[in-house]
Every structure is written in C-alpha cells, then in structure tokens.
Amino acid sequence: MFKMLQHRHDVILGINANHPDAAAAILVDGELVAAVEEERFRRIKHVGGFPTEAVRACVQEAGIEPAEIGWIAQNRDARAHLWEKAAYVLQRRPSFGFLRDRLANARRNQNLPDLVAAALDVPRSAIGARFVPVEHHRAHLASAFFASPFDSAVVVSVDGFGDFSSTSWASGAGSKLELRGRVSFPHSLGLFYLALTQYLGFHAYGDEYKVMGLAAHGRPRYANQLAKVVKIGADRRFTLDLSFFRHHRTGGSLDWADSDQAPRTGLVYTSALEQLLGPARRQDEPLEERHRDIAASVQAVYEDTLMRLLIECHRSDPNPNLCLAGGAAMNSLANGRITTRTKFEQLYVPSAPGDAGGALGAALWVHHGVRAQPRNGPILRADWGPSPVQKAVHAALDARSEDLAVEDARVRTFQEEKDLLSTVVDVLVRGGVVGWFQGRAEFGPRALGNRSILADPRRRDMRDRLNSRIKLRESFRPFAPSVLAEHAAEWFDLGRRRSEHDVPFMERVVRVQPNRRDEIPAVTHADGTSRIQTVPAGRRDLFRRLLEVFAARTGVPMLLNTSFNENEPIVLEPSEALDCFLRTRMDALVLGDKLILRPTALQADPDRAEGATAAQPRPRTAS
C-alpha cells in the first residue's frame, strides 16, 4: 500500500551504520513505512558496517525515488560531548589503540551520504538530502517516546556506550524531549553486564540474554561481592569500580565495522574480577551451581541499580508513564519488575530498543526535534520489513523440490483459510513443530507471528525438543508464549494497570499465575515466569486467527513462539525459511498459503504422547 502514497512532503531516512546491528528506517510525512536490520540480508548476527541492503529495501518498500529523500539521519554525532572527551584523554591517557579505533570510526561516518548514493546505485548529486547526525542516546530516547502511546512520559535510555554516554534520561511531552541527566563514559550498566557475561564464558556479541536465562536457575549468593563492582551514589547515579574493567584504557578491542563478519568484543574485565569471584568459566566448561548463582547475582545487582535510577527519575518527574530504550531495555526480566518496584504504572519499550532501533530514533528526532512536527500515532506493530512476493514462494519450492521429495514432504495449497488453520492446529496438538512465515518481516530481535516457530505450550517435553532438535542451543534457555490479549490476565500477572496493548513486543517477563503453571510447562521458566507477547483483538491477521482456533480447540489461548532461525539471524526470504525447515526436524511449514508437511506432522508418535501434560484443560477461552 505504501507504493501509492501521494503528495509526499517529507521523507527521512534513518541509519545505524558502522556499529553493531546496522539498520535503516524510513519515515514518510512522519509515518514509519519501513524498517529492517542489515543482518537479515547478510545472514550474520548483529552485523555492523554500512546497511546497504537495508537502505535499498526500505526505499523499495516505501516506493520512493532516491531524489525524494529530504533528510538522512544517523544515530551518531562525533561532535557530541567534545569537551568531555578531550578532558578524558588528558586525564586518563588511554592507549593509542583506543584513540585510533575511535578516530577511524568517526572518519567512516563522515561520508554517509556518499554511501547512501552508492547503495541506491545513483550519483552523489542525486541525493540532495540534508545529513543530520543525532547524538546516540537522543536517538534512543526518541525511538521510545515518539513511538509510544503516551502524551507525556519519563524517558530513559541505558546501553553500553554511544557518543561518550551510557545512560540518559529525559522528560517527554507532546513533540518535545527535554534531557534531564546522563551517565558518561566509562561508567556503564551495559559494560557491567557484558563483563560478567564474558566471565561466565559467553563471548559472542549479544550473549547477555543467555545470562538472563541462566539467572532463573540460581540464587543471588554473590550479590554482595558484585555490589563492589557497580556502586550507587547519593543521587542514585551509578559508577563502576574501574579496577575490574579494561574498556576505559583499551576500548575492549571493539571491532564491529566489518560488514562481512559478526562484531567482536575483546575482554573487558580484569583479573580483579577473578580474584573477587573465583576463576572465570571457559567456554567449553560445563555450567555449575556457582555459575548459575553468579548469573542470578548479576541480574539482581543490575536490577537493583536500574530500579534505583528509575526511582530517582520518577521522584524528579512524577509521571506514571515510562518509555525505555537502549540495549539494556532488552533485559526483559528487569522490564517485567519495573511497575512493581517503582511508581511507574505504564511501560513502553519499542520493538527494536537496541542500536538497530536507533535508525528509527534518529529519523523520529529529525521529524520532531529538528523540524518541530507534531506527533503521529503510536507504533504498536513490528512488521516493518520486506514482504516477499508470491513468486518468491513458488521459486523457493521449485528450487528445492528434489529435497522435499527426499524428505517425503507434501506441499498443500488451501482454498479456505479455515481449513489451513484447522490442519496447522492438528499438527500442533499432536506435538508437531510448525515453521510460520507470513507477511512483512518484524523489526527488532523478536519473532512476533510473522517469522516464527510455533509449538503447543502444554507439552512438558517441548522445551527440550526445541532446544536439542530445532534451535540447537543451551538446554537452560526458555521459550516464550504469544497469548490472546483479552485472556492474558487469566494466565499471567500483568501488574496494577493493564491495557489492550500490554506487551506487544515480547519485551517483559511476568509471573505465570500459580494455578496455571502446570497447564503450560513449555513456556513456564524455572522461576515460574514467562516472557510474553500479547496479541490484541485489533490484529486481524492469520497469526491472531491461528491463536483463536488453537484456543477454541484446547482452551489454552496461546502458542509457544520462538524466532524462525537456527543459530542465525531470523529468516527473511521464503528460501531461507525452507532451508531452515529442511535442515532441522520441524514437522510442518506454513509459507504464505502453502503448507509443507513431513510424514511425522499428523502422526501421534509415542515420544510426543509421552511428553503431553497429564491433564488436558477443557476449552473455556474460545473466541
């Protein structure tokens, strides 16, 4: 529909470049029309460099010509906080490598309009856009507040670092954001969590979520020791004890500009951390009780520090609404406790709160902060990526017809939607695992019903089956449910205040109601919690209707929903979905209006029957 937009007055291209999670987003007259991460095209998790393919896809999806781009916004501003940077260099005397890396990154960002022109295969003269660098945390703040449903809110951004800051907070009202305070380099909650993630043997970029999953299996016995690492001041701002860290001297050997490999981060902690906690875990060592307890302690100290900061923010601006962004806003455990541990009553976290979302935030800042344009409606959807045409589905099936024949897999086309949904539910209730590929790709790290792997949440064996046979990941990692919003409070504790759009982006962990935990063991974590997505009644797509059919059949208004991938970025194209289906042990794949079924899909095999919950709940929540 976007290709038919008329009378364009304002086209803003937002970019996150030369930084992990490179991405692009486009606003047309203030409305978001496209946003996608570069990793989906390059098939490299968190890839940095310039988002060439993402820029092309956004321009194509918006249906615009390159000459129509009026503004190019980037979520980096090398000029921000210059005096602080100079003072730091003079006082701390960081290593030559530290300075070299930062100067090289600044140079890469100077020629961004040239790179946009090259990506769109037009001469530089065809891009008449004004280039606006936006301070990193200002972009994060904008991505949360201007996309939120709140007229006013406290807005907080927490991450590792960007433009010499790690944390910023502001007051948002209408189309204005007023900065209230910040925490500067080298102090960072993100670096605190990264250091302990590495200490626990998880060294890939973005592995912090593994520590969150592990935390549920431990006790915070090391919280007192870790309280020495990050300290809270009288004003509830935090500082790091820098004797435990090396990033302020060496930069942690950060390498993320290459667009052909995943970002790499060197060791950011010192031997002092091992003196405090004992020897660090090697990647090939088994996880022990001590490691689980340290993970629980890391999460507890992080949460305590964040909550104290938020309490102070609310004290100075007693607004019931909070918007949260930055990489730390992906800590869904902490997010789920904000409305119980602080006086905030409503929380909005965007679908892409991390650096990818900074592309959208930079564009929103230009529209509202630079051009002083009024707010548009809230962004409560995540499907802003490309949507493949039907011929791509047919091409993928044709190219892999021999592989499908070897698997004895059948391809069925349904004339009636109800027949497709009924057959998919048949597969699910028999214990089958279903790949689900529909519509536009989601923007952000979560699959929310367009690029998902689905399963029955009632089955006790499902978590182990998915981890070992499909996702090929650690056994302690939990799975999340997508639930019909109108029934969510019957199954989950959603806190004091609720609305139709409680948790649209799977961004919060909440308590499963105690009397329901045995009914949905596959999505109930070891500590009785679950990271949920609420699917509102207004979302009238095939995924919502699948949930309704499953609820009518089983009495359980939800499905286990995990991202459609296997140790790779979430699939983008039909061919990638089909490849993932063929190399894993999924039972069925819904590809647009096509249903691919393995022989196992409609069989009740003994392993599945054994894994089912003993008591099947009777239907009571059918829509």
Topology:
Elements lengths: L10 E6 L6 E6 L2 E7 L1 H4 L9 H11 L8 E4 L7 H11 L3 H13 L3 H8 L10 E4 L2 H10 L6 E11 L2 E9 L2 E9 L4 H11 L8 H8 L7 H4 L3 E3 L5 E3 L6 H4 L20 H7 L11 H28 L4 E5 L6 H4 L2 H4 L4 E3 L8 H14 L19 H10 L1 H6 L3 E4 L3 H13 L4 E4 L13 E5 L6 H9 L9 E5 L3 H4 E2 L14 E5 L16 E7 L6 H13 L3 E6 L10 H10 L4 E4 L2 E4 L8 H6 L12
Parallel strand pairs: 1-4, 4-5, 6-11, 11-12, 14-21, 16-19
Antiparallel strand pairs: 1-2, 2-3, 6-7, 7-8, 9-10, 13-22, 14-15, 15-20, 16-20, 17-18, 18-19, 21-22
Helix pairs in contact: 2-5, 6-15, 7-12, 8-12, 18-21
Helix content: 25-40%
- CA(first)-CA(last) distance: 30 Å
Query: What would you call the quaternary organization?
Result: single chain
Largest sheet: 10 strands, mixed
Mean pLDDT: 90
User: Uncertain runs with pLDDT below 50, 5 residues or more?
Assistant: 1-7, 606-611, 614-623
Give a written overview of the molecule.
The chain contains 23 helices and 22 strands. By secondary structure, it is α/β, with parallel strands linked by helices. Helix 7 (about 190-200) packs antiparallel against helix 12 (about 290-315) and helix 8 packs across helix 12. The longest helix is centred in the middle third of the chain and has 28 residues, at about 290-315. It is globular, with a radius of gyration of 24 Å. Mean pLDDT is about 90; it is low at about 1-5, about 605-610 and about 615-623.
Key traits:
34% helix, disordered C terminus, 623 residues, 10-stranded mixed sheet, alpha/beta, 5-stranded mixed sheet
